Amino acid sequence: MLVGNAGVGKTVFVGDTLTNLSEDYLVSRVPFNYYTTSAALQREILDLFSDEDVDKVISGIRNEVRGLGMVDSKENCWKFFLARVRLQLKVGGLKARLASQEAELQLRNHDAEALITKIGLQTERVSREKAIADAEEQKVAAIQIEVSQKQRECEADLLKAEPALVAATGALNTLNRVKMTSWLLGFLNIIFKGY
């Protein structure tokens, strides 16, 4: 990465892939943000390097500038260099943003998979409970059929027994209750005298 001395021991990050210009300028990645105009930025960055280093940068990209059909003046070469550095910084920022978004996407995918698993487990539980409820419902339906059948049988038995019940009730009503009472008392006396 290409960096320069910004005075008072500070370094400024300039590029990522334009490397190996000088061992003095290779340091760890410590980017500084500049909020200034493009022209001022060009002058400030140019002032960070010695004339020898600027000449190395310009001679390194002079052929590319010519290849693009531009005049290979020092100013055009320096503008091309800064445009490339800006582009590399932008690409680096986009890569960092993409990495962050990929990490967030992986986290969301993990959360979604966990939710799908949880929903799947709940669906299985609901299916089991529904199967149990269906079995109970079938048992209840079978019991209702049996109860209905017993009720019909009882109603049929009652219909068959009703004429005999009516006849017995009629016979009881024809008996003289006073005679019946005296007969029962006599019968009871016979039974109790033997004891």
What does this structure look like?
The protein is mainly alpha-helical. 5% of the residues are buried. A two-stranded antiparallel sheet has the order 1-2. It has a domain at 3-95. The protein is built from 4 helices and 2 strands; from the N terminus they run ββαααα. α2 crosses α3. Residues 1-30 have low confidence and may be disordered.
* Cα-atom radius of gyration: 53 Å
> End-to-end distance, in Å?
131 Å
> What's the mean pLDDT score?
78
Strand content: under 5%
Structural class: mainly alpha
Helical stretch tally: 4
General shape: rod-shaped
Sheet with most strands: strand arrangement? 1-2
SSE pattern, N- to C-terminal: EEHHHH
Low-confidence stretches: 1-30
InterPro entries: DHC (IPR026983), Dynein_HC_stalk (IPR024743), P-loop_NTPase (IPR027417)
Protein name: Dynein heavy chain 11, axonemal
Domain Dynein heavy chain coiled coil stalk: 90-182
Pfam families: AAA_7, MT
Can you give me a brief rundown of this structure?
The protein has 195 residues and is mainly α. It has helices at residues 38-48, 51-67, 74-174, 177-193; strands at residues 3-5, 11-13. The chain is built from four helices and two strands; from the N terminus they run ββαααα.
Topology at a glance:
Elements: E1 3-5, E2 11-13, H1 38-48, H2 51-67, H3 74-174, H4 177-193
Antiparallel strand pairs: 1-2
